[in-house]
Amino acid sequence: GILYDRIEGGGIETTIRNICQEIYPEHFNIVLFLHERVKDSSIIPAGIKIVYLSSPQSSRSSIYDFINELKTGLEENSISILMHWWIHGPALLWITLLCHLMDIAVLTSIRFDHNFEVISRRQHYPHTSMLNTLRCIDKISCLNISSEIYLRLQGIDAIYLPNTVRQWDEPIPCNKRENNIAVSCRLHDRKKGIRHCLLVLKEVLRYCPNAKMIFIGSFEMPEREKIFYERAKNLNLLEHIDVTGWIRDPAEVLDQCKVGFSASFMEGFPNTVADAQARGLPLVMYDLDISIADNNPSIIRVPQQDIKGAAIELANLLLNDDMRQHLSRVALENIKRFSRERFKRDILDFLKNFDSMSHMRSYSPGEYRRALQMMAWYAGKSMPDY
Q1: How do 49-52 and 81-84 pair as beta strands?
Q2: What is the mean pLDDT of residues 127-141?
């Protein structure tokens, strides 16, 4: 069983789709437990059953109804393992207790960030409460090394499980004429730093007047779209931006770009970073704990909110063909570490060995230092406004 609220175009949803495609029907029967209707059924492999549940709110009655619906669904479908991807939902502890009472293993995925202490629907879930709840879960996968280190130091069985990249045909040659910058994300999400993208583009135009930023994603919320275009107009950027809307396969759009950019303030599922790399795009991004960027010179990190620094790095990549083409080859070489074959092997190992402790590997001083830096950053910095 895989429990989440919806299957659309976000990072969690992409990873769930990857799991469905890689382990069904060869290894496991899969049942999706969702709250929202799947708009495009073609994105789910044929044969995977979907059970729709009501959405648990903060009230006792709604959580009671949800737990009863989930219990019925688990019983009717003979679920033996539940992968819970809704880690910050208000019913996490209830779900975990229910599954243990039914002798069902509970697996989940998490990152360490500001959401570790979360206010959800007016309910406050302190950091220590989240840790105690996570200790009740059979096994946890992490999306970066820092999360694995932190949780293991708390006595929680956690393993780093990197996401896969989409399998595309070989990328087109990196000799490109247009100075296009790709930004791929949920455009309505405040954490993705869309306002910063516009400010960075404004600065890039000082060095590269014909640059253009292509946004791959959708707003979903009309008010966010209105704010976006008003800001672009005020910055005189309307002729230098393009918005594609959400598309299932962004390869064609990425191939029109020379470089990628990410201004995200939090990213647990770096699918968009991997997508850009898989098309041979060097990437400039705000500094985040994304293991795909470790020891990877084709991903250039700048400090959070460093608009000028990001713009200079983007302009250098746009204008320096030799350097960009070299980093393009580096990107393609690095992305091989995140193949579908590795993902399939690791996810199967994760599912089949949930009842045994993960092997405790040793970490380098650099990995410990990185984990400490990220924990300090998340603990001391509040999320910026949109």
Answers
A1: unpaired
A2: 83
